[in-house]
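Re: [help] complex structure
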Amino acid sequence: VYEILARTVYGKRKKAEVGVDRLVAEGAFAAAFPLHEGPFQLPKQDVRPDDLNRRQVLYFYWARWSKWYKYQPLDHIREYFGEKIALYFAWLFYTAWLLPAAVVGTLIFVSGVMSMGTNTPSEEICHGGSSYRMCPLCKTCKAWNMSDICTMAKLGYLFDHPGTVFFSVFMSFWAVTFLEYWKRKMATLAHHWDCMDFHEEEQERPRPEFAAMAPTVEQNPVTGVKEPYFPEKTRLSRMFTGSMVIVLMLCVVIIFLVTVVMCRGIISVMMYHTGSPVLRTEAATIANISSSIVNLGLILLMGQVYTALAEQLTKWAEMHRTQTQYDNAFTFKVFIFQFVNFYSSPFYVAFFKGFVGYPTNYGTLFGMRNEDCGPGGCLIELAEQLFIIMVGKQLINNIQEFILKVKAWRQRRSLANVLGGKVSHEPHRWEEDYQLVECGGLFEEYLEMLQFGFITIFVAAFPLAPLFALLNNWVEIRLDAHKFVCEYRRPVAERTQNIGVWFSILEGLSHLSVIANAFLIAFTSDFLPRLLYQYKFEKGLHGYVNFSLAYAPLNYTYKAFRDNDGNYTLFYWELLAVRLGFIIAFEHVVFFVLRAIDWIVPDVPESLELKVKREHYLAKQALAENQEALL
Amino acid sequence: VYEILARTVYGKRKKAEVGVDRLVAEGAFAAAFPLHEGPFQLPKQDVRPDDLNRRQVLYFYWARWSKWYKYQPLDHIREYFGEKIALYFAWLFYTAWLLPAAVVGTLIFVSGVMSMGTNTPSEEICHGGSSYRMCPLCKTCKAWNMSDICTMAKLGYLFDHPGTVFFSVFMSFWAVTFLEYWKRKMATLAHHWDCMDFHEEEQERPRPEFAAMAPTVEQNPVTGVKEPYFPEKTRLSRMFTGSMVIVLMLCVVIIFLVTVVMCRGIISVMMYHTGSPVLRTEAATIANISSSIVNLGLILLMGQVYTALAEQLTKWAEMHRTQTQYDNAFTFKVFIFQFVNFYSSPFYVAFFKGFVGYPTNYGTLFGMRNEDCGPGGCLIELAEQLFIIMVGKQLINNIQEFILKVKAWRQRRSLANVLGGKVSHEPHRWEEDYQLVECGGLFEEYLEMLQFGFITIFVAAFPLAPLFALLNNWVEIRLDAHKFVCEYRRPVAERTQNIGVWFSILEGLSHLSVIANAFLIAFTSDFLPRLLYQYKFEKGLHGYVNFSLAYAPLNYTYKAFRDNDGNYTLFYWELLAVRLGFIIAFEHVVFFVLRAIDWIVPDVPESLELKVKREHYLAKQALAENQEALL
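Output below.
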């Protein structure tokens, strides 16, 4: 990109902006960066804290593992790195809010483990012996006994008991309360750092790429200064380009999803044909896990492709004038990409898997029978998927850290080559800093917010998600701190008053999570069928397993509320009405309460608002006096 | 109130604010008001427009019936009456937006009338003869033939055909588009009138009542000026007081609702026992209409009580410092009151009427059988109610106009008494203006916004509502204009940048309307049962009437999807699932699209935003230069 840019700049020299960026782009300089204030290593002899430079202070009090239990010194971070990076670390404060969610989630999980033994339906499955002969799972497979899947049925209860329903309601409120808090925190920080009235468009210069590409020069409508100008495409045509790409990308994701589904089916059939009894009973699980790993690989591969594509799109197709506009457009696009990328597979498992039809009339896709969820229910498969994605992502993060180290090492070697080992003097600050890696921006860091989706959208399936997220973020804070203080060149400080488009994304995620949880509880979980069974027959869950099975020809059974001809029973329709009614009630109540919270809690803390008004008032007074003095 | 206030002011003289308001309150002056600029009557001989005073200009170009087709001269209104009143007339501009809604609504209604004859179910009812013997409607009533209600069934189709479904979707989008437009309009006007940065709390003085009641004097946290101070109750305790009153009021409304329901039942039974065949067949309609009128009376009575109650509450319990805060709190309270007051009865008819149980097992309330909707369906009853309430309100408006005239006349007479008829000189301006009525504020005018609810919330039942609203508002504009120019004393001009809490109310109404329409179409309308019947039996609507009837003992029939034992049939449960599914689909799609519209359309027009930024920038530059000049 730099090469192309440099050539473009040459071509349009008369209009191009000048500055160090251009010299770097043209290759006159190898790099340009602000210097660190000194080494981060602490001096060996004892020194007073006053003698430390600011980098050492940050290292000593913040960027070390041994400080894991400490708050983050946001003001110091801001002083050294600027508002943008400080705000990122302030955002990581959401880690603290994860604590209650993690505790409740763990309690829910533990209560599931405790009551696992006393669960009537899984007891009935385990002690059913050969009384329930289940339909074969594929054309050439054999029938099987329901008691074979005793373990899975017991495990399934872990992810599908009344506690998870409570937990998903809890997490909806948690998410909204957190966002309300974050809004207030953001306002307070922006005021504290004096960037509340920071308007990007007024003060930001055009991006160098924009300046290089712009065909004409025109007056900036705000400042009146002549600036490179690009005839702005209309908002609508931009949107159109953007949406077309998103649609294209959706198609690709769906193709990959189908691939993974087919892959899972093939693995599953292969397992059955090995003949090994262990492989046969665990076929679904093995197929599920292995295809999840394939899926993860695809996700990561596609993620790279998508990000590159989005960068090109944002850069060449849309031509945003300022860096902030560019960042927002890019962020939004990549987020949509990544969201569909990461979440399509869990969504498929949660809501679309299991539409199998019934024996003698199975639904098919490309000649293969539609997938059914394993005997433990869809929720346990969803939990497996989420676990693999979350842990997998963590693994990739570690690999990325490793790549960073390799980069740093190569940088250092190339510099050593240049100097030719003939360094006689104490290395200069700029030499030392040149050995460090260039900071790649906060985009990748913020993309971790996908995590927020995992802990809210599918929380009903995986109550341990907040705990994992908490542990991950706890590590992340010190890891990132260490990177910024010790491994990165000092980035150019940037001002900002909020986290930009990320906040809208978070809000969207929290709303989506309410809807997803409602559907998850209503359709994927076994919660409502059990409840309705208990209510209708007034004998607890005794006989529920038998009741939930339908008879196929040859006296085989399968899980569905159908009569012997495959038509839905009255209970099925009653249950459907209950399910849909539950969704309506859940969404209306939760959204209403959330709106009420949003309405009652002011976005700016009252004391801060008074302060701002006071300042406003004083400024006006001062202006009036000033003018009097002039007259 | 003035008496009490005057005494309070006397008692706490040292802390009280001084000014003309206090002198009026103490009776030293009879009144204090800004003067009109002259007579509104046009001079008899021809004059050039430049010679007219501003009041005459307003009268000539705006406040006359003959100008009904003209836009409103907002800038002139603002110049003469101030921003607050001008903004009210700008709001009335929503009249123009009603035009498309009224046209579409009328088309829908006409298409209903056109297709009334070709409607299969009502044909089947009319030609059924005595083949359907219906269950008696009360204990002592007789059974009746379904063909008796042929007319009602035909009329019912007017309010319950596929067009109304389309219309309610259309109106949801209409409402949101209108609000988006209004947001932009409001921002433009606020900028145009230079009150965008108007912060009430900085510039508004405490209300006289507040000053009089305040026990101590403290520094204003913003201006630093010593001011009467009232130890502010916490937000929460205020909310609590407010909610308690609202709950209390809800109870009262429900009691009145039950009264009206009982009243309707009693009238209906009485009709049956008159023996007249006409009265018998139309019993339900007559009962419905007469009880609607009773209901309207109660609504108006309670409205007066509520408003008085809310005023007291806001004044004494909450103690708001500024007039704006007071107005907002008062407005919100009265709106909630009036909303429940006006809408509870339509809500009852739309959603709660018709839970009657089945023969041999009727549900009862205080020993009376629960009400069922008339044979035309609940929608036609709802339409009747809405019609009566809307027309009734219009009637009351006219009565209020009359009261205003009476007031003006009394004012004039009392002044004549004071002067004793010994007026020799040409009357002074202040004498003429004193004869006018004091302007009661815009609150009553804005309360007309309840109308917005009628045309959005129950639009499925009454497609003509937008047309009525349009006609009403068209008249209202010139009527209000005439009042302000000719009949009111000139009000003190007030600044404001928006319509305050009313906007939130409108937004709430538009959201509520989506939900209400979804439920109305799903449950109250016959749209979905018919659709499902057509889909399942593939023979159009033939036989639908027979299918929708259930058999009671003695071979009587009644309208329900039940078997002979009174249990719900499979079709009922299927239908219930379809209904709930429809609600979910409708709400998600509509809300999603609405959110997208809200997100895509910027709240402030782009050109205005540039202008504001430019001004901001110039101000900053000027400040910098100013400071340089000082140094």
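Residues 1-16 of chain B have pLDDT under 50 and may be disordered.
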